[in-house]
Amino acid sequence: xxTKWYFFFLTMIAVSAILYAWLGIQEEESVEIGxxxxxxxxxxxxxGLQEGLEDLGYSRQEVQYRVMNxxxxxxxxxxxxDQLLIEExxxxxxxxxxxxxxxxxxxxxxxxxxxxxxxxxxxxxxLGLIEDYKSPGGLFTGINNYxxxxxxxxxxxxxxxxxxxxxxxxxxxxxxxxxxxxxxxTRAAAITIGVTVIPCDxxxxxxxxxxxxxxxxxxxxxxLPSFRIESLTDEIVKLTKEKKIxxxxxxxxxxxxxxxxxxxxSFHSQGYQASRFVSLILQGNKPADLPVExxxxxxxxxxxxxxxxxxxxxxxxxxxxxxxIHPEAQGxxxx
Length: 335
Description:
CATH architecture of the largest domain: 3-Layer(aba) Sandwich
Strand order of the largest sheet: 7-6-8-9-10-11-12
Order of helices and strands: HEHEHEHEEHEHEHEHHEHEHEHHEH
Shape: elongated
Strand content: 15-25%
Number of helices: 14
Number of domains: 2
CATH superfamily of the largest domain: Response regulator
CATH topology of the largest domain: Rossmann fold
Radius of gyration: 24 Å
Number of strands: 12
C-alpha cells in the first residue's frame, strides 16, 4: 500500500510540475513590435518608446522588439520593410516620415493589415497617411510632431534671437515632401518678417559646399525636416563654427551637438508619447479610432557654449525663456 501511495505522490508532483511549466510559458507569451528607423539619430525615439511602455507596466518579457535600422540608406529601408511585413509582427512603430510613407506604400501594395503607430511625423494628413486627425481611419495613428507647421515660427525665433540677421540659408530636402512644405511655410513667414531666405537643397551632394562659399556676416542657417539633413548635422555644426554664424535646428540633439538653438519636440519625448498609442492598441483598440495627437511639449533650447562663441548680440527676452544647455559640462544629453 505504501508503495502505491508513493508512486501516486510522485505522479502528482510530476503532473504539477508540467502544469506549472506550461502555465509559466503561457504567462510569458509576448507581443512582437517591429521598429523602423532610417538612421541612428532616431534611436532616441526608440529609447523613449521603451521607457514609456515600461512606465505603463509592460515588462521586457511581455514585449519583444524587432528593430530595423537602415543606416540612412533608403534602399536598405525598403528591404527591411519587406522583411518585416513577411514576419508580420503584432504592431509596427515607425520613427519618422520616410519610414512611415515607405511602409504605407508597401502595405497598400501587399494588402497587409498590421496596426502602425508613427512616433512623430509632420503633416500626416497632408501626406495621405490618415483620413482625419480626430478619426484617422485605416491602420495608422500616432504623433503629429508639428515640425512643418512651426517652420515659420522657427524663422521668427531665430531672427528675433539674433536681431542683426539679414539673410537666412534654409536647408531643406527637395526629395522629401514635408521638407518642401516646410520651405513654403518658411518663405511665407520671411515675407512677414522682412528677411531674405536662400534655399539650400540637401539632396544635392554639393549643397554644403555651395553654402560654405555663399554664407557671410549677418547670415544665419535654418534647418528643415529631413532624415538626410539629420545625417548632416555634424557637418552643419562644423560649418557654423568655422563661419561663426547662428543656426536654428528642430531637435535638442542638434543644439547639443553645437547648433546655436533648436525648437521642437525632442526625439525622446515623441517616442515616450507614442508608447500610449502602442498600449491602447495592444489592449484591443483600433488605430482608426485613436485621434492623432500633437506633441506633449515643444522645447526651445540654446547651446550656451555656442552662444558665447559667436560674438553676436542676443535678444535677452528670448534668452530668458530658453532652456540653456551646457553639453560639454554635462557630458551627455539632457532630455
